[in-house]
Fold:
Amino acid sequence: MDAATEAHALQRNARWPSWRGGLGHAGRILLGAIFLFSGIAKGLTPSEFTQQVAGYGILGPRLTALAAPALIVFEIVLGVALVCAVRPVLTAGASIVLLLIFIGIEAYGLSAGRTEACGCFGAYSSRTPAEVIGEDLLFVLLGAIAIWGSRGWEGLRAGGAGAVLVASLLISTAFVVASPSLPFFNIPVITRLAPGAVLADLKLEKRLPALAEGRHLVALFDVTDARAAGIATTLNALAATQGAPPILGLTPSTEQEIDAFLWTAVPAFEVKRIDREVIPVLYRRLPRFFLVDSGRVTAVYDGAPPEAKDLL
Amino acid sequence: MMLDMASLRTIRLLPVLALALAATSPALADAIVCKPNYDYSVEVDGSYPKNATLYQAASPGMYYVDVPACKTGLLMDMKARKVVAVPREQIKQVDGGLQMNDTAPPTATAYALAVDGPFVQFQAEDKKVRILRCLDRPPIVGAVEMDTLVADRPEYREGMREYAPKGESIAALNKYTKKVQIDAFFATWCPHCKEYMPKFLRVVSEVKNPNIKVNLYGVPKGFTQAPGPWQGRNINSIPTIIVKIDGREITRMGSQPGAVPETELADIFGAVR
Structure:
């Protein structure tokens, strides 16, 4: 920027009321935080987000498998860019474009019927499409405020901006790729399943009222997983152990996948489909097992079922 | 304590007596008890005979398939991947289910079965039998009378039988004097409808108020883009129960975990007097 232009910019900035710049910063940072939080939340279970994207029926399975993780990475990078003031006007503009695309997709879903065929909604959306659209419109407004308040301000210098973008791209990509394998995301801070939790905490009080009485071992696992047959064999042996509590299998798989599992693995326990709304409350990584006694969780086991001695 | 000779003789005879009793009493230890499982339908040569039922045993992988048109009963062993014919005279009705021996006679006919994803199929007595989840049956589409629906769908029939509506709510619905029209849109392929609709239908069957008229409409998959009575009514999810009082739409009910339709309806009617 030459001296005349810089002087002009300084003069213009000086004429701007400070509250305008303040509102711009507030809008930018708030919108950035929302994108960051949203992206990280999706990144904790990218497979669930992929399922949601697939539910719209807009992209084929292969494109969905690529687009969903890419969208998560883009959302995180955009959030970081907004918070760190990397070309604030441009990034706020990009966020508005992204939000408008989301709104368009939700509107399409609203008109065509989406996600699960009966119109029920995905793991992260216990809200209706209309509510999601309303929310996105508010975020568009935040983006507009960010642009309005940041006009003429370059934000972070070029070198710093580049470093922020590259670092956030690398870290977010690594996060999305690695998150299904990271063991610590089943910790109580991220899910609610922990010793001491009650059925209401886990959104299971009305869904599985039978767990409120007696002892039960609940097995959370994907019946389409290659390990499912082995898990069934281990649980069948537990079920046959005298004094062991009854076992209930919960799975996010479809009814058809459950049937295929029932006919081939022949489990000695009931297997029910878990509501997608409950998934983020219970786990990030499967398999997972927990003991319930009179409606309260007494123990949680990650990766493998408990041994018989733990149940007696 | 000293035992006399008579007591000693009795004690020596006890094992013999026990063996004799075991030989004459029914082989209860080898009996299979099966309960009907209405989550699954029995398809026979492409149709769904009314009383064709899948029964599930307590032993994992054991099922009994009752096909009325077959001369014998069919015991399905998923571990052995075979179906064994069981003479009907060996099957007894017990409390809410059936009982039979798990040891088939050596001359019993056996049929191979195949698992094709979520379906089990086999051929018995020249009949093609397929076991599939009731939700996977061809759906009921369009206006349907409750009697027809209940006759065709045992999962709804049993769900109605198991549900006990609250008496005070039913009484309130029976006393309501305004004209009510309820249009219920549901799908026989929808798991949420399978859970909710039997409760709703039980309530409808218990309410004897001539002012309340209920219309049932089955919707197909992809209903938002398929022509039918649901078009133009802003039906985006199912089940959707539209409640109109004196010709005016008041509210819409749907399924929630733990829903109590009779109480919800009673509250709606109570709010519109």
The two ends of chain A are 76 Å apart (CA to CA). The first strand of chain A starts at residue 215 and ends at 220. The interface with chain B takes residues 110-113, 117-120, 129, 206-207, 209, 236, 255-260, 263-264, 266-268, 273, 275 of chain A (CB under 8 Å).
